[in-house]
Design a protein that fits this description.
The complex is a heterodimer of chains A (349) and B (565).
Chain A (H helix, E strand, L loop, with lengths): L1 H7 L1 H15 L3 E6 L6 H11 L2 E6 L3 H9 L8 E5 H10 L18 H4 L8 E2 L2 E2 L2 E7 L2 E4 L22 E4 L2 H11 L13 H14 L2 E3 L2 H10 L4 E3 L4 H9 L4 E4 L5 E10 L6 H11 L2 H11 L2 E2 L13 E3 L6 H13 L4 H4 L2
Parallel strand pairs in A: 1-2, 1-3, 8-9, 8-10, 12-14
Antiparallel strand pairs in A: 3-12, 4-5, 6-12, 6-13, 7-10, 7-11
Helix pairs in contact in A: 7-8, 7-13, 8-13, 9-10
Chain B lengths: L4 H67 L1 H8 L3 H17 L3 E8 L6 E8 L2 E5 L11 H7 L7 E2 L3 E2 L12 E10 L5 E10 H8 L8 E5 L5 E3 L17 H4 L4 H4 L5 E6 L9 E9 L3 E2 L3 E9 H5 L3 H41 L17 H35 L9 H18 L3 E8 L2 H8 L1 H18 L5 E4 L4 E7 L4 H16 L2 E3 L2 E3 L3 E8 L6 H24 L1
Parallel strand pairs in B: 4-12
Antiparallel strand pairs in B: 1-2, 1-7, 2-3, 4-6, 5-6, 6-7, 8-9, 8-13, 10-11, 11-13, 14-16, 14-19, 15-16, 17-18
Helix pairs in contact in B: 1-9, 2-3, 12-13, 13-14
The chains are: A alpha/beta (349), B alpha+beta (565).
Amino acid sequence: MLRRLSLHRLPWLVLALALSGTACATEVLRVLSWPGYADADVVQAFEARTGARVEVTQVDSDETLWQKLSTNDATDYDVFAVNTAELQRYIDRGVAVAIDPAALPNLGAQLPRFRNPATLPGTTRDGKLYAIPYAWAEMGLIYDRRQFDAPPQSIAALWDARYRGKVLVYNSGSHNFSLAAQMLGKASPFRLDAADWAPAVERLVELRRNLLTFYAQPEESAHLFVSRGAALMYANYGTQQLQLLRAAGADVGYAIPREGALAWLDCWVVTRGARNQALALAWIDHLLGTGPAHVLSARHGLDNTRDPAPHQAETDRLVWLEPVEDVERRNLLWERILSGDRGARVLAP
Amino acid sequence: MRFGIAARLGIVLALSGMLSAGITAFQAQRASETVLVDSARAELLTSTRVLAQRITQVREDISRTLLALARHPAALAALESDDPQAATQLATLLALPMAANRAYFQLRLIGAADHGLERVRIDRDGDALLRVDGDALQEKGHYPYVFDALALAAGEVYMSRVSINRERGSHAALGRPAVQLATPVVDESGRPRGVIVGSIDLNGVFALLAADLPADFLLYLANSAGDYLIHPDPARTFGFDKGRRVRVQDEFPATQAVIDGRSSESMIDSDAGEHAQAPLVAAFIAARVQLRTEEGAFILGLARPRAAVLAELDPLRGIMLQIVIGMSLTGILLAAILARAITHPIEVLGAAVQNFYDNDQAPALPVERQDEIGALARRFAELRTQIGQQLAELEHRRRELEHLARHDALTGLPNRALFDDRMAVALASARRDDGGLALLFVDIDDFKPINDRLGHVVGDRVLEGVAARIRQSIRESDTAARIGGDEFVVLLPGIASAEDARVVADKIRAAIDRPFMIDGGELAVSVSMGLAHYPQDGSDSTTLARHADAAMYRDKAEGKARRHS
């Protein structure tokens, strides 16, 4: 059978191979994305416009993303989405390549704060642009309008004894130490110096004593807020929690503290292994258009970089997340604080 | 390969026998499987309910313990005074249930004051119980089991969500699935002053409860959202603790109704998705918790591998296999007998055809049968009889023709041809045996006048009469023949001498000399005779014939002389 095939059907095989070769000639863009960033209709619109075919691979954790891009010299994908904090190691490793802004006409339609690299630490290095902001969310304060005369101005409200037992905070070592650093007036909440740890821990123990409890999930936070009559919440999930609470009938407001709200920013990045950089840039430019931007905010509740965010002013201060100085230490100390250790025991070796 | 009718018929019959036996066995097995699976599900459902009741009993036991501790004066005393004695007394009390029941990870008294500072705490640490004291005591006011339990009235019990215990310093409980039960300690005025909290080892409790379940029972427990808390594969439990959801409704879609509260139980035959290779029979129920808790209901389930359920069919399968084999063998045997019954008569008919002309050789035809074969045999027998009769007639005719060819039609005596044959045989025999023979010519005297005067009919009667009298006068072994109009010849084999032959000749002459009675009148006939003897008168038939002929003419001449003298 094999012999027959090879002798008699060889011409057909050659023809088939030639045809499939023609099919391969269609450009394929390999996208490594997060849920909601490359919906089928968004992809189809791009395919219709460029004639290229898009292969989307979804990831749901930073670890998976890193694993996929750190193998095979990043040649398996052309373009990917990553937050600014994580981005740094991709630049370090050479996975990300510099982008020519001129290739992205839609950049001009972005909000000013996303067009100025100076306000976006991490998207540039050595004067070169490596990442194009795409989706973001900030962590503001949600407050009960009936218990507040005026919106809280500062994160200090979380420590305010008037709201003792009525405060909800997200259960996160990294973020909560950043909060403590902001309370301590640090220039960067992501850089705690050796002398800062003891006062930061002290702040966080005080915070623990002032709040009702820590939450993990948005739904859980909304349930606790309503059922326990909370007054104030540090909203790790931002406006998503605001929407949940309003849906539950809570009379709540949303405020960006003057210290600045921690915010994450996901950007699109072109890989070193991109087969066709122009096509990868066309994909990024496509996503900056009005259609995909609308999908992002209307369908997935995330902020896009074109339209002003509904619950804040352009002048509100955002603190884009950066890698912290020592994530293990923050987590270890946080676990002790969370478990109820007091004072010196938290900082014990 | 060639098969006879018997083989083909046998195979068809045997196959149909096996097929019918197989189909019967298959259907019986299908029916049995359905019954077994149904009863297995019902059994699982019952077991699940029993298990749920036991869980309730365990939980009630723990609740009673906590309530008893909360009401004990030592609890309030330990909260209201800084007297180490009071705390020590309560510690002794807390250690008692912990020593008795390994399900407790921890028993604590936590104060409402000082941000929920633990006041008395006993931890399980390996096999030992450990009293945690002093600086190691932690502030737990931000845990729901403290702030929610403090909101309860005296006598009420709070139950936390089931989760992985992440509280550092909790010894044996750290990193383990646990649930907290708590009840407030109130003072005389009814004000909550603290809580008694029991931390319960989820896996320990269920290991005890499920200990007497059969080994192939699989235990599942999920929270009200369907997240697995207990699963045969421990890696699939507490997925939410690791940032992903591993839910019962994803593995068993039919449990969605139980989770949604649309149904209180679900019996499942799970053979799709991940269970396609090893189907499970399962039963799930919603076990409501009659406590103040965020956990709504638990989804409790038991499952068994379908293969294990159906293993109970193995003895039945063995019996069915035996029946199938037995019925198949019986079918083959019956087929062989039946085939023989049909083909044997055909073989008999075949043999009858083969021995068509020899009725003795052919086996008896089954003409007595009342079936098609009998009819065929009867037809054949008739045919054979008819053909036999016709053949016999033909043979008869042939013999007649042969007789006619070698005999004289008028007298019935052999004709010249036959006589010549016998003469040759007799001569050869005489030469070989050195014996003798005689040849006797007999000629009717004056026959032509008889014919002319009295007619041919009388002439013929004379010829007949002479022939008869010659025949009467000779031995059986002698041959008389008519070789011409009125000429006869007689062959006398085994005659030693001419004298012996003359005796026979005289006897013939004497017989003929007697008058013939023809049409009521007498007629005298005489004959002339000539004799030749071998070897005396010649050694071959021609010589002997000439000699005899000559002798006869001499005799005729002498006879004429006698009659006219």
